[in-house]
Amino acid sequence: MRLRDVFFFSMAKRRRKRVAIFGKWGKLIRWQNTLVALACVMVALTLGENRLDQPSNLIIYFVVGLIFAGGNVLNDFVDVPSDKIAHPNRPLPAGTIKRKSALLLGISLLTGGIVFDLVGLGYYGLPPTLLAVFAAVLLLFYDFIGSRVPFLGNLVVALLAGTVFIYVGSAQGLTHAHVYAAGFAALITLAREIVKDIADREADESVGIRTLPAVIGDLKAARLASISMVVIVPLSIIPYFTGDFNEWYLAPIILFVVLPVALLAWLLPGNITSYKAKKYAKDMKWIIIGGLLALFLGGITA
Question: What count of Cα atoms within 13 Å lies in the side-chain half-sphere of residue 100?
Answer without folding.
Answer: 0
